[in-house]
């Protein structure tokens, strides 16, 4: 169907299932084990309800924000997802170009199909991109990746070795492409990352308030509350539910409220609507990551699909901010959500 018939992000999934290359559909749509966490990522949003306010002037609404110091037209960013070329020959470049058009941030994955150079070259001169780093067992490679990101160019071929082109495919796709990741990574290593970069560091995959507090105490710039789209530990809780717990505990243990600029909370998993995003914002998140919908969008429609997906979100933000009675993202406050169905721990 033409893009004009695609009315929401769910539609991209339904069409992708019918039109995408089979391998791409299998890799993009799947999750771990029995996919309980993947389903929970959606279900958790269904337990949160709005408390919209009325008779507030919402003639002009503005849903732009700042994520880790960088302007974004929406409180969303494109999550890092591996192997973009499975779905479309231009792979991650579709995301780069649509992100530029809409003024949002793309998180580039370590395991991108396009090279780091291709992705950075496809970006506009002033376009901000984040980089998702899988830490190599060989820390010299991780260090060189960082230097490359700071545009202090070295041998580009060396960087490729950390990615998907040097893999042992005898053990299945997932293991093959992640075999270089260091399972020995620990909290004490954070000081080493700080020593090799001046870029802000955010930690992805936090799933408890205890680890969130540790990240804060280690002076990181923020965390992503994420179970990686239900693709890692099944029965991990949803990011949105962990967010409620984290915000409560930071208030109790440190007297800190969110959002704040010293330490930002990002969330991902199961976000498909601006209403999902606004729930996270109300609860204290700065922004929310979205993964699969953009993969389905470019697999069927290329860059135009991602552009259309982002335009749908822009339209949903405008409409739903008005309906919520909020003029700006700052006006989306905790009182605007009812979390009584999840405040049970
Ligand atoms: C991912 N994700 C991911 N995360 C990461 O840090 N590095 C990676 O290489 C990948 N690869 C990847 C591939 C595919 C196909 C998917 C669907 C996801 C996880 C991703 O960053 C994000 O956490 C989830 O995709 C968010 O959930 P939704 O929006 O897909 O429900």
Automatic annotation (TrEMBL):
Q: Which UniProt keywords apply?
A: Oxidoreductase
Q: Which domain of life is it from?
A: Eukaryota
Query: Which parts form a coiled-coil structure per UniProt?
Result: none
- What cofactor does this one take? FMN
- Where the record annotates domain FMN hydroxy acid dehydrogenase, the positions are 1-342
Q: Which GO terms describe its molecular function?
A: L-lactate dehydrogenase (cytochrome) activity
Please give the biological process terms from Gene Ontology that the record holds: lactate metabolic process
Indicate what this protein is called per its UniProt record.
Uncharacterized protein
Origin species, per record, is Multifurca ochricompacta
User: Which residues of the full-length protein are shown here?
Assistant: 102 to 446 of 477
